[in-house]
Design brief:
It is a single chain. A hairpin with a 4-residue loop joins strand 5 and strand 6. Helix 14 runs parallel beside helix 17. Helix content is 51%, strand content 16%. Strands 1, 2, 3, 4, 5, 6, 7, 8, 9, 10, 11, 12, 13 and 14 form a 14-stranded mixed β-sheet that branches. Strands 17, 18, 19, 20, 21, 22, 23 and 24 form an eight-stranded mixed β-sheet that branches. The chain is built from 30 helices and 26 strands. The chain folds into four domains: 74 residues, no CATH class; 225 residues, no CATH class; 302 residues, no CATH class; 182 residues, no CATH class. The protein starts with a helix and ends with a helix. The protein has 893 residues and is α+β, with helices and mostly antiparallel strands.
């Protein structure tokens, strides 16, 4: 009998919880009802079921989903939940305008937040799709001594081969090198001819297809590079040259260093993912580069000195990266040779994870080995911006919910008079917040789908919304919506639940007390964030415009650049071809000067030149331009000493330096630099024949940098620059094309103006400014939607007061000022708070630029005026219509 009584007792822990949350005088009644239900369930359903349901009833009681009536009538506990949902839906429909404003603000805020998250996810996902991405590393070489510190993503080409043999932790290696100067690629069968850029053609090892996940559409992996003259294309490139035909086994003719010839197509790769730092169109066996590169000089130099390649290593999953680095350093030290032992140069390697290459390569020399790099600073900035936009939307919800709370005061009063607990009311209003946020979250997916193409257009990348395919995303998204619902609904819920029923039912209107202070603070914060975004957009625009509008030392818009290739022919023939072309152009009145070079404005090579008296270990790196005679005349360089190249000077034996190079090479003056010797490599000496003023070959983001203009072989010049007047561009172009086709009959006529490539250096700033502009507009839109709703509610609640004032003679302007001054004052507070922060952030951002604007009053005044104008329009539109209304209509009701 004792055991039977023990079984019929409800769980003691549950009863203990009740004593902690229910007032003492109510415990007996609540526990009595629960125990009656418990005994009935034991009789009908059994002991286990009764205990389980007892716990459920207790939890429902504690979170506010139960009531006296529910227990005494033994109703299902979900009845009150359904009631809350029903009431929430009715309230949304009853206040259609405010509900629409809440939903639109929240859905736009969440949608833009989703778009920014997709952009961030895309930027941070580079190269993570490879099967073994966490174990793939790029080898970075670091050279340093007391006067030198260079870090670059290249190694000797023998490093990977010997590292695989000697270091057991290394499982595979891949080497890659670019085509020296691009190439002309043609399909002899259909006469398709195109210039291909330097990064579009890569020489790689066969292991490339094992290390990196680039799926083959056709071809056999083991037979891709069976022959040195095999080539693998991407799907897009195959369509470009062969249309709908099957390209396997067909031939492409490549005219470009280091190994021109007829290449047989042995494989087609699926088009490359956009989130890969490796972007190419053609793959060729690296043996061609090692054997024929630079006229055979690569092979002669050996695999440890001189010419370098990019090397990737795949490590064993259990390998210690630091131990592998030490072993690689020992391997390099063994092969450096006696000749470098006394130079004091420390040469070590860093293993860079392949997933970090895109985002963390900006500080490496020759980062041009990848097509584009990311910017982690932008990622951080846009993460903050996305939160701000969403926060503004949540603030709108909080403000509107508390502002219209007077409409629900009687509902709260009646509920409390009938015995509703505060926590039950809080539960109801939080449920309403969850409902609104959930609907907005569903709508935000549509906003994201609509907005993403605009983001893709700004970025120049077709970014898919593939984040939705991740199961993990939906977990985070639902948690985010739930947390946001609680955060945005908690304050309005507590405000509404604290109304005094006696005061409400007596008709008192001042039921909110001092709760309005927080609402004002939130409005200030909204417009503070909006002003920060507008000011940032204006700052980026001013800085970009400043750099683009600066008068450059080179007249870029007058220089036409032609693409060409001089491959597989004798140096003398290449020089003769250029002379014929140059003389042919000179016959036209619009052509002022002609030259050729290995790069165009905005591009350069980094080379290790040193003055003859400088020690080899102190060799400073400088930027080089390999060119022909006529360069200084074409680009309008100003000489401080000496003069331009002449046709009598010997190729590869003379050079011109700029003003910044004087200090680097240790010259006291331009005159003393003349006839001095520069040394590059081991045995090439060049005499300095001229010193020019610093010129703008690179963007104004950077300070002036040492340049060496090298009179080099015509074999190295893929670009011809033509200085022309712009009086009759079509006629000039027709003449240039005619002479080009005669001089280079097998090459396509392709051209661009030098300012196009030069201004590409500002592409990231233009992109950044466009994104900021878009997000600023959306942030201000969301803020103004909330402001409009608040003003509409405020004017509606003061309709009778306005009617009385109009009857007593108040003018429309006075009434508008009365209705608007509170909000305008809050906006002015936001402006005052934002000014020092805008100044600090602006100064910090501008430190990244050598040539920059000075922060003036316009940075504060123009964004502030813009925000004031938008706000005045938002507030004025509503207040004007209210102030102009007929007072009879308002006093009649």
């Amino acid at each position: 009998m004792m055991q039977k009584d023990e079984k019929q007792k409800p769980p003691s822990m549950a009863n203990w919880l009740i004593t902690k949350f229910i007032r003492h005088e109510l415990q007996e009644e609540f526990c009595g009802d629960l125990q009656e239900i418990y005994k009935d369930r034991i009789a009908t359903k059994g002991n286990s079921y009764a205990k389980w349901m007892y716990w459920i009833d207790v939890f429902h009681l504690l979170i506010g989903f139960t009531s006296f009536k529910l227990f005494s009538n033994k109703n299902n506990p979900t009845i009150m939940f359904r009631h809350y949902v029903l009431v929430s839906g009715r309230n949304l429909l009853r206040n259609k305008v405010y509900s629409l404003i809440n939903l639109s603000g929240l859905s736009v805020g969440m949608g833009i937040c989703l778009v920014i998250c997709q952009y961030i996810y895309f930027e941070l996902s580079y190269d993570s799709f490879h099967n073994n991405a966490e174990n793939i590393y790029r080898v970075i070489t670091e050279e340093r001594n007391s006067e030198l510190n260079e870090t670059y993503p290249k190694t000797g080409y023998s490093l990977g081969v010997e590292a695989l043999e000697e270091i057991p932790e290394i499982k595979q290696y891949v080497r890659k090198e670019r085509c020296n100067r691009g190439a002309i690629v043609s399909n002899p069968l259909n006469n398709s001819v195109f210039h291909e850029e330097i990064n579009d053609l890569l020489f790689v090892d066969h292991s490339f297809f094992n290390v990196f996940k680039f799926p083959l559409i056709s071809g056999k992996k083991e037979a891709l590079f069976n022959d040195k003259y095999s080539i693998v294309l991407t799907e897009r490139t195959a369509r470009k040259y062969f249309g709908d035909e099957d390209p396997l086994g067909k031939v492409l003719k490549i005219n470009g260093p280091p190994s021109p010839g007829d290449y047989t197509v042995t494989g087609i790769l699926k088009d490359l993912p956009l989130n890969s730092h490796l972007q190419f169109d053609f793959l060729m066996p690296i043996e061609n580069f090692l054997e024929y590169g630079w006229g055979g000089a690569v092979k002669k130099q050996g695999g440890w000195k001189g010419f370098s390649v990019v090397t990737y290593l795949t490590l064993d999953a259990a390998a210690d990266k630091e131990i592998v680095c030490n072993k690689l350093n020992e391997l390099i030290a063994r092969h450096r040779g006696e000749g470098q032992s006394g130079q004091g140069i420390v040469k070590e390697v860093i293993l860079q994870p392949v997933t970090d290459i895109y985002m963390e390569s900006n500080n490496y020399s020759d980062a041009g080995y990848i097509n584009s790099t990311g910017n982690i600073q932008n990622i951080r900035i846009f993460s903050i911006v996305s939160f701000f936009i969403l926060f503004i939307a949540w603030v709108n919800y909080i403000n509107l919910s508390t502002a219209i709370s007077i409409k629900r005061a009687k509902e709260v009063g009646i509920r409390k008079a009938l015995g509703a607990f505060k926590k039950q009311l809080v539960s109801q209003f939080i449920l309403e917040s969850i409902l609104v946020n959930s609907i907005a979250a569903a709508l935000s997916l549509g906003v994201a789908f609509f907005a993403l193409p605009f983001l893709s257009e700004i970025l120049g990348k077709n970014i898919p919304l593939n984040m939705l395919e991740l199961p993990m995303f939906w977990g985070y998204f639902l948690a985010f919506v739930l947390i946001g619902s609680l955060l945005s609904g908690l304050y309005p819920a507590f405000v509404l639940s604290t109304f005094k029923p006696v005061g409400i039912l007596k008709g008192q209107k001042n039921v909110q007390g001092k709760k309005i202070d927080l609402r004002k603070g939130l409005i200030v914060f909204q417009f503070f964030i909006s002003l920060l975004l507008i000011s940032s957009t204006y700052l980026v625009y001013r800085q970009t415009t400043f750099m683009k509008s600066q008068e450059l030392s080179i007249d870029m818009e007058k220089i036409l650049v032609l693409k060409t290739q001089q491959v597989g022919i004798d140096k003398d023939i290449a020089e003769a071809n250029f002379r014929i072309f140059k003389n042919g152009l000179a016959q036209h009145h619009s052509i002022a000067a002609v030259t050729s070079a290995n790069v165009t404005p905005g591009q350069y090579w980094e080379s290790s030149y040193r003055e003859s008296s400088q020690l080899e270990q102190a060799t400073p790196y400088s930027r080089s331009i390999i060119t022909s005679w006529g360069f200084s005349e074409t680009y309008g360089l100003d000489f401080l000493a000496g003069g331009p190249f002449t046709e009598k000077m010997k190729i590869e034996e003379v050079a011109i330096i700029n003003e910044s190079a004087l200090k680097v090479f240790g010259f006291e003056s331009p005159e003393k630099a003349l006839k001095s010797k520069l040394i590059i490599g081991k045995n090439r000496n060049m005499e300095i024949v001229g010193v020019v003023k610093d010129f703008h070959w690179h963007s104004l983001k950077e300070p002036h940098t040492p340049y060496v203009i090298d009179l080099g072989s015509f074999m190295l010049h893929p670009f011809i620059s033509v200085r022309m007047n712009l009086s009759d561009i079509p006629e000039s172009l027709a003449h240039i094309e005619s002479i080009f086709n005669k001089s280079f009959p097998d090459q396509p006529f392709e051209y661009f103006f030098a300012d196009e490539t030069f201004n590409r250096q500002y592409h990231s700033e233009v992109q950044f400014g466009s994104l900021f502009l878009s997000f600023s507009v959306l942030a201000v839109f969301v803020a103004c939607v909330g402001l409009f709703a608040l003003v509409a509610h405020s004017t509606t609640s003061k309709t009778k007061e306005i009617g009385i004032r109009k009857v007593l003679g108040a003018r429309t302007g006075n009434l508008m000022l009365l209705l608007s001054k509170e909000y305008l004052f809050l906006i002015l507070i936001a402006i005052v708070i934002a000014i020092p922060i805008v100044f600090f952030l602006g100064q910090t951002w501008l430190e990244n630029y050598a040539s920059k604007i000075e922060i003036g009053f316009d940075l504060f005044v123009i964004p502030a005026l813009a925000l004031l104008f938008i706000s005045l329009f938002t507030v004025g539109h509503r207040t004007f219509s209210t102030a102009r209304s007929n007072p009879v209509d308002s006093l009649r009701h």
